[in-house]
Design goal:
The protein is about 30% helix and about 25% strand. It is an alpha/beta fold. The chain has 3 domains: about 55 residues, OB fold (Dihydrolipoamide Acetyltransferase, E2P) (Beta Barrel), CATH 2.40.50.140; about 160 residues, Rossmann fold (3-Layer(aba) Sandwich); about 60 residues, Probable gtpase engc, domain 3 (Ribonucleotide Reductase Protein R1, domain 1). A hairpin with a 4-residue loop joins strand 2 and strand 3. The longest helix has 16 residues.
């Protein structure tokens, strides 16, 4: 790699000291970056130049067509990944299914124009009664148009359906720690492919998801980004209208309230409130929306 001309690459992972780039020949390159480039994230398409056989410098970042972001501990927006098409919200019975977290991810995905898909993993650890109850809770999302997939990484149950949705798309897996995101990815990839990638890139065979990392499906028929687990997913930088727009079942009613500045709380002529009273909008989702709105006030 003595050629110093500009080359294209994709960011596999962005660490503190270096950025891991995959080049057009499928080689992993540890790159530094010029200060003018700015923050790099998993999924970025970049321009880089070789400095030695296995190292280089990133000179530019290509325009991002989409991003997924969340506030950090200081409530500053941080981009998690870029150039993605679909967000797979992975949940499980343990840690406990959290509809509030699902709703926050859905709002973020809708406002980023990404397709969200809900995945209930670890079904092998559930009793039949627990499965029945979980399906009942998740039917709420199916009823408003979202896809829900039931999987078990251990038993390889539901993986064919998952692969069909992943195919030919750039995807990211999100969710709480312990729901099995990494285990699902291990099952979707060849058993030695993931360990091989990590070993080649970092010299380590064991992987703990502390930073987003990009993997490629067989024959380059899609990409998967594994993201670190979170307990909460903040939406403090979104406005109240953006939050409402993130609840897709609200959309037919938005803009039809009696008052233009309707806050959808107790105003007369609120079309959303009427829809809730008439069971056209789920009371559970409505309460979730109100909790998110309340959280915006608490964090500003």
């Amino acid at each position: 790699m003595n050629d110093i001309k500009a080359q294209q690459g994709i960011v596999i992972a962005a660490y503190r000291r270096y950025t891991l780039v995959k080049d057009n020949t499928d080689q992993f390159i540890q790159c530094q970056q010029r200060k003018s480039v700015g923050q790099l994230v998993c999924g970025d398409n970049v321009i880089w130049q070789a400095e030695s056989e296995n190292s280089g410098v990133i000179t530019a970042i290509e325009e991002r067509r989409s991003i997924l972001q969340r506030p950090d501990i200081n409530n500053k927006l941080r981009i998690i990944a870029s150039n993605i098409d679909q967000v797979f919200i992975v949940v499980a019975n343990k840690p406990a299914l959290n509809e509030g977290l699902i709703d926050r991810y859905l709002v973020a995905a809708e406002n980023s124009h990404l397709t969200p898909i809900i995945v209930l993993n670890k079904t092998d650890l559930c009793s039949q009664q627990e499965i029945t109850e979980l399906k009942k809770r998740l039917k709420l999302y199916q009823d408003i148009g979202y896809t829900v997939i039931y999987t078990s990484a251990k038993q390889e149950h539901g993986l064919d359906s998952l692969k069909n949705h992943l195919k030919n798309n750039n995807n990211i897996f999100v969710g709480q720690s312990g729901v099995g995101k990494s285990s699902l990815i291990n099952s979707l990839l060849k058993s030695d492919a993931r360990v091989g990638e990590i070993s080649q890139a970092t010299g380590k065979g064991k992987h703990t998801t502390t930073t987003a990392y990009l993997y490629f499906l067989d024959n380059d028929k899609g990409q998967i980004i594994d993201s670190p687990g979170v307990r909460e997913f903040g939406l403090v930088k979104l406005s109240e209208p953006e939050i409402a727009n993130g609840f897709i079942e609200f959309k037919p009613y938005l803009g039809y309230c009696k008052f233009r500045n309707c806050a959808h709380k107790n105003e007369p002529g609120c079309v959303l409130l009427n829809a809730v009273d008439e069971n056209k909008i789920s009371k559970k989702r409505w309460d979730s929306y109100q909790r998110i709105i309340a959280s915006l006030t608490e964090t500003r």
